[in-house]
Amino acid sequence: MNVESWADSPDLPTPQQPDRLCLESFWSEVExxxxxxxxxxxxxxxxxxxxxxxxxxWLQDAGxxxxxxGEEEDVDKAVLLSTLTKTQAAAVQRRIDSFTCSLRKRNKxxxxxxRDVFASPIAQSAVPETHNSEPDAHRNMESxxxxxxxxxxxxxxxxxxxxxxxxxxxxxxxxxAILLKQAKLPQNNSSQCRRDDGAxxxxxxxxxxxxxxxxxxxxxxxxxxxxxxxxxxxxxxxDLLGLEVKRHxxxxxxxxxxxxxxxxxxxxxESDQKIKxxxxxxxxxxxxxxxxxxxxLDSEGILRVPGSxxxxxxxxxxxxxxxxSGSFSWDxxxxxxxxxxxxxxIRELPAPLLTVEHLNTFSAVRDIAxxxxxxxxxxxxxxxxxxxxxxxxxxxxEFLSKVVLSERRNRMNLWAVSTIMAPNLxxxxxxxxKLAVDGPEKGQAERAADxxxxxxxYQDLLWTVKIWRNSLxxxxxxxx
Length: 480
Hints:
The protein is about 55% helix and about 5% strand.
């Protein structure tokens, strides 16, 4: 079987950990974010969902609201339920049990049991049987692993590092369940998570006979179904890995009178589509990234060397006033000032680029010991992002990858870029973050940067919907 490389090894050797300059830059970014934030804004605007509310919101997001509100399920929801694996169904049932317990405390009618929905006439008529049995998962994993191992076995004989095999035709949570039974899945603990894992290996996965599907290939209707399946699979996987992640939600924030900075991504994209139809990311961000690719990739210390704060404030005001009129000139803008504007644009979004709902789960990925399990969760999290956020993240990671590829000229390796950009994505005034608590500074910076490093290194894998190219696809999708 042919294999496809998702992340080829970089031309230059990557340091095994961030150096002193990277760590200093990390805390410089953190200090900048703190100075730009309002006092106590995160505590005022963010809170965890109340007892039972977490499970109710989760069931609604997973497309399982009939289990909560007693509505009759439609065919699509019945089909979704019928495709769940044993591990996924167990994760759903845990949320139902927790929600039912909360309802009983409030003397309300308990939610339905998931087996009642599986046994409903509409589910049985929509899909007569499910093909995601545990024996099938075992056979698929053994078959794919054996074939892929033989494709790269020559590397071992040559003394090279073995590539990681990324199995995509078995649900991620089922893979973890099988590995747990075989005692092959590393246990998550702080010592393992902080170990030096050296250079990141190449990750390969097979070419599917049905081809590959990316998020951009699917309609909004199909992506809604993908997100429901991804949420269930991710939750089941996190349960198996022992990750307890609670979502936060924010109160409505006052949107500043601005055209560019501090404006919700969805509003920016919607407004820009009136100017340029079919645009996927804000036009300002497109222009800024294009400028940095032309002028900044060869600039030594790009992203790390701070721009002039006074010039940045002036530039921001000028852009707000004249960007859309086309009268703003980039000729006199320095690459370092432009890079500062990029980081400022990301961190001043009214909600995190990685969303309030999932930012804590992104952060929790650093507590997973196994690389492939980390990538499984990240892949599902990317699919869960709203379309404007997902497209913006993709454009940002593609630019950061180009910065790393130009390391010989700009002296910015993968660790440097990751360490500097991590605070701008993982620290946000709308969500309290564990990255900012007291503790060993070196450990915090490394753990935060490690997530960013994975996002940049394996980004090609994260936009694929290849996991759903199995027996689920013909049942759930209609337009592909």
